[in-house]
Design a protein that fits this description.
Number of helices: 3
Distance between the termini: 47 Å
Strand order of the largest sheet: 1-2-6-5
Helix content: 10-25%
Order of helices and strands: EEHHEEHEEEEE
Largest sheet: 4 strands, antiparallel
Oligomer: single chain
Radius of gyration: 22 Å
Structural class: alpha+beta
Number of strands: 9
């Protein structure tokens, strides 16, 4: 069994089109709209798990995001949730097995040149097809700084931060207050 010629990997979206993220520091879950960097985030994580000869050719920078809850900043690929990372680990392992299978199967296909192979090629398992579906489980919060929405835990009413620009907002009880701090990168 060989790997498919084309494999599409995407972060699952909920019914409203939001993607689940997890802070690498406080481990709380929130959701944002899909980012134009999501493909780079997945590619970068796969590249770490399944290295190849020229890693610099596949490396693309990703932006720095801010945790909605604690305000910690990290590169966007650090905000993948555990389910997504587990899927990518399984996919990388499966891809490595398929590559190894193709390399070893070449010997079997060319037996006339080497009639006494010293191994038996074992067909790899199917690649995992999809990430788990995304539940509709968080509440939407409108952010005035970027005119965007984020979904947060239902019981969160403390201060929060915009994941994209890092603007600090007051708590959800009462009016939103914005504290803008410009960070030079």
């Amino acid at each position: 069994m060989s790997a498919p010629e084309r494999l599409e990997v995407a972060l699952p979206r909920d019914v409203s089109g939001f993607v689940r993220r997890q802070c690498p520091t406080c481990l709380r879950i929130f959701k944002t709209r899909p980012s134009r960097f999501d493909a780079r985030i997945l590619q970068r994580r796969l590249l770490v798990l399944f290295p190849f000869e020229n890693p610099h050719e596949g490396y693309e920078p990703v932006p720095t995001w801010t945790c909605f809850y604690c305000g910690q900043r990290a590169e966007a690929d650090e905000f993948l949730v555990r389910d997504h990372v587990t899927y990518l680990e399984e996919l990388a392992k499966g891809l490595a097995n398929h590559v190894r299978y193709e390399q070893l199967a070449h010997v079997t296909r060319t037996l006339s040149q080497n009639p006494r192979p010293t191994f038996v090629v074992v067909t790899p398992e199917e690649l995992p097809r999809y990430m788990p579906p995304e539940p509709e489980d968080l509440r939407p919060i409108h952010l005035v700084c970027c005119a965007d929405e984020v979904k947060a835990l239902w019981d969160w009413d403390g201060p929060f931060y915009c994941p994209r620009c890092g603007a600090h907002h007051g708590g959800l009880s009462g009016r939103q207050q914005i504290h803008l701090e410009f960070i030079q990168e």
